[in-house]
């Protein structure tokens, strides 16, 4: 099973705080691809104490990705304590305004409550912790939302799985073509060496033996460089490993392993490209590079 890092889920519920008070809650989780687990929370002030609990829960379930959690309450101040005036602060503002009026000889109009309320900290809202019952209801909603998100990730993951399997199949076909072409080139090179060897054995007086030996040495060196048997074996091993990772039902976090394996596959293709001077093999190698890069783009979005 392959799980994507991209997903979205949203839920709404009604939180009953007291028999005479309730608040509608809308909650959403959106995830995007990321190398690590990163979370951004937008919570009402009364629920800010739950941020760490939510983060620990989601990190365990979602493992990797850029996570955006948003909780909106119809009454964001529903979970609060008492609301009281700050008499000392109001008194200080009143005396300050009175002094300003006297010093600047302003009109002798009375200072009103509306004027005082324009200043900050006149009213104190005493925050209180969310009760255990409400906290459980919110975390239960987070759990339900997470399950929907994981299901959405799996649906996206199926598409990624199909695409990667198809690309692996294409690469396997092209690798076989490279192996066949490589064998044909090696056989051609061996024939050239054999002809030179036969010519040398004839011992004709007009044969320049030093020059003949030099040509044979050049052909032997070229033949040695043409040998890509080890690279082909390693590529097939990497492709088999990719299929094993994709079909592994026990491991949930596969993205990094797939990406690392594709990197190793790319290195083997680069080696083949450097070794082969044949245009047909170069074309095949380029085609594999294209498929590997496309596969790596897809792997970036796998958990």
In short:
The chain is of the alpha+beta class and 303 residues long. It has helices at residues 51-62, 87-103, 113-116, 132-202, 209-226, 229-247, 255-275, 279-299; strands spanning 7-18, 21-32, 37-42, 65-73, 83-85, 123-125.
Would you write up a description of this structure?
The protein is an alpha+beta fold and 303 residues long. The longest helix has 71 residues, at 132-202. Helix 4 (132-202) packs antiparallel against helix 6 and helix 7 (255-275) runs antiparallel to helix 8 (279-299). Strand 1 and strand 2 (21-32) form a beta hairpin. The protein contains eight helices and six strands, in the order E-E-E-H-E-E-H-H-E-H-H-H-H-H. It has helices at residues 51-62, 87-103, 113-116, 132-202, 209-226, 229-247, 255-275, 279-299, and strands spanning 7-18, 21-32, 37-42, 65-73, 83-85, 123-125. It has three domains: 7-79 and 131-153, Ribosomal Protein S5, domain 2 (2-Layer Sandwich); 83-125, no CATH class; 155-299, Up-down Bundle (Glutathione S-transferase Yfyf (Class Pi), Chain A, domain 2), CATH 1.20.1050. A four-stranded mixed β-sheet has the order 1-2-4-3, covered by helices on one side. It has a two-stranded antiparallel ribbon with strand order 5-6. The N and C termini lie close together (11 Å).
């Amino acid at each position: 099973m392959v799980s994507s890092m991209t997903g979205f889920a949203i839920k709404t519920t009604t939180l009953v705080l007291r028999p005479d008070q309730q608040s509608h809650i809308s909650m959403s989780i959106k995830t995007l691809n990321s190398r690590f687990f990163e979370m951004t929370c937008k919570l009402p002030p009364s629920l800010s104490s739950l941020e760490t609990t939510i983060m620990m829960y989601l990190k365990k379930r979602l493992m990797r990705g850029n996570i955006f959690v948003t909780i909106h309450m119809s009454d964001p101040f529903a979970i609060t304590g008492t609301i009281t005036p700050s008499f000392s602060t109001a008194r200080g503002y009143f005396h300050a305004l009175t002094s300003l009026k006297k010093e600047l000889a302003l009109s002798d109009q009375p200072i009103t409550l509306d004027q005082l309320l324009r200043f900050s900290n006149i009213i104190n809202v005493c925050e209180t912790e969310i009760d255990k019952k409400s906290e459980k209801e919110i975390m239960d909603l987070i759990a339900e939302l997470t399950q929907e998100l994981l299901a959405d990730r799996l649906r996206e993951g199926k598409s990624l799985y199909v695409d990667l399997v198809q690309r692996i199949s294409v690469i396997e076909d092209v690798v076989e073509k490279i192996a066949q072409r490589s064998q044909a080139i090696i056989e051609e090179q061996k024939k050239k060496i054999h002809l030179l060897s036969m010519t040398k054995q004839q011992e004709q007086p007009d044969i320049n033996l030093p020059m003949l030996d030099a040509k044979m040495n050049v052909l032997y060196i070229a033949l040695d460089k043409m040998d890509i048997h080890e690279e082909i074996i390693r590529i097939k091993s990497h492709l088999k490993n990719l299929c094993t990772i994709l079909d592994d039902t026990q491991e949930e976090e596969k993205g990094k392993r797939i990406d690392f394996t594709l990197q190793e596959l790319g290195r083997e293709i680069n080696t083949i490209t450097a070794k082969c001077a044949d245009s047909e093999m170069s074309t095949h190698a380029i085609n594999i590079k294209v498929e590997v890069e496309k596969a790596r783009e897809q792997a970036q979005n796998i958990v």
